[in-house]
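Weekly modeling sync, notes
Attendees: S.R. (lead), two postdocs, one rotation student

Agenda item 3: backlog of single-chain predictions. S.R. asked that every request posted to the team notebook include the full sequence so nobody has to chase files. The rotation student volunteered to paste the first one in as an example of the format we agreed on. Action items at the bottom.

Example entry:
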Amino acid sequence: MSGVEARLVETLLWLCNIPSPTGEERLIADAVMERVSRSALAAPPRRHGDSIVVPVTRGTGGPRVALAGHLDVVRTSHDGPPRVEGDKLYGPGASDMKSGLALMFDLLSHGAREIAGTDLTLIFYAREEGPYAENELGRVLADDPEATAVDLAVCMEPSDNKLSLGASGSIHARITFEGRTAHSARPWQGENAIHKAGPFLTELGAREPRTVILDGLTYRTVTSSTLAEGGRGRNVVPDVFTLNLNHRFSPDTSIAEAQRDIEALVAGRAKIEWTDLSPSAPPHASHPLVIALKDAGVAGVEAKQAWTDVARFAALSVPAVNWGPGVNAQAHQRNEWTSIPLLVEGRAILGRFFEAIGRR
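Predicted structure, as returned to the notebook:
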């Protein structure tokens, strides 16, 4: 095991051994605060709730870059403690996204030469995996001017070292069909709310994805019913039937436009309650710093067919991309693991990226 690999594995095991399910990040925030405070390279960190902004290098005259990684993990089950087995490291959040955090820590402790020509900011934040409104990155971006005074933000999402550009917007809405109760032996005396939803569900099931190409990348707008609730008893015609509708929309669409699309689909047949509104983000494929990251040897370039926090940066006119060493398919999985070779290669990609942009 090389020195770089040993360092990264040690740091990632340390991170995975600190419990940090969404909403319970205080312990890991305290540990991160203590560790970054010991760095000779960084200025004093600033804490916002359970989130931390670390000014690393300043006054270089080079590009201003932020690396942002969330501290929380989805609560999943594991058959053992964090551990290494072959070329895999198992642990809660190993891929999503404590592998990205490990790279951020390694730059802070061993990247002085690589980042010397860049003004670097590290952002560790809480509650990413929960509702949009509770995500503390919003608080950080609102309260800490240095967090948005950057030329590029890189969200360290697990992407197999691929550059995932843009982000699909996401709307969750409660769609409620209303009827009238009756005894199920005499259904004509009522109005079945579940049956009323039938034509809508048929139309939804036949709905084809809308495809759009932006910066040479393909994004798809899709709409799915993901939860259903209704009924009062086995022998009662239901008077209320509610669906959770999840609408994922491409970066060329605003939240207001996406809401109008849902309203047109429902067409007055049910009540609509907006429960979660998350904006989309453009890909920024032609941005010079994005090109530099691509040229640093990323594993590929793809459209991000999901919502991520790049959209929060985009809402503030800050270009942002998704990139990280975690194994995308392992996110939120039971016995989550990440690839140690991808972790090591990710560190090399970051080093080449910062060296290249620092020479400009």
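Discussion: group reviewed the output briefly. The longest helix spans residues 340-358.
Action items: rotation student to repeat for the remaining queue; S.R. to check formatting next week.
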